Amino acid sequence: MTETSSSPQSFEIISSLRFDPGLPDAACRHASSYPDPHKSPYYLLAYHQDRLIAAAAHFQWNRALTWLQQDLQSFEEFLDSSIADRSKAWRLRIVVNSQGKARVEANATASIDLMSLFIPSLHTNPDPPIWRVYVDTESTIPSGFTTHKTTARDDYAAARLRAGINSPTDLAEVLVVNPNDEVMEGSITTPYFLRDHMWITPPLSSGGNAGITRRYALSQGFCLEHTISRDELVDGELCWLSNGVRGFIRGQIITK
């Protein structure tokens, strides 16, 4: 996969986030451990904008960069136009091309325990759903397309198929590994593993995505960055997973 802007129509940069009418109240109640803006119904809004800016800068998409560097209120107003019913929760997919043209794909999404949007140390559900977490049988080569989220996701789709995950509604994830057998990330989540009484997440040097919930977890001291190899994963061990639509999810490693 070539990381040049010579074929700008071949991919777009993306970020997926949650709109939830209940988030502002919950965020204000936990303001000390949730980043600004607290009153926005868009989950970790500023982090999503920053993520898209970083991707546009990496791919040297100057027109996209100019559009993305608008003030946060204007960015939120752009997203508002995609919300058909503000009383419901929505999954939004922000898509930006090299020319700075942006669109939002909005789909209704299920209600969740709002506490799952915060770092796990704040969770109150004693019995959360547990996702099955597999390990990819093949390796993925790190690139700008793994560090930044784009529509070029063939490697992730292939990893999910190899793990037998056939639907986005499956409560299952697959960990992507690099040629050095280091865990990079999950196909749609950031993973966290308990080691020596501390939660760790793979460093960006392993090749994974600079996810927004990853940034949130690190900023709150929930986890540290540490390389973890495929061989270190223990069958049956519990882990955490996170992304910008579902928040933090409990998972269980399956290696056999």
UniProtKB/TrEMBL annotation:
One of its GO terms (molecular function) is catalytic activity. It holds the Pfam family Aminotran_4. InterPro entries: Aminotrans_IV, Aminotransferase-like, BCAT-like_C, BCAT-like_N. This is Aminodeoxychorismate lyase. It comes from Penicillium nalgiovense.
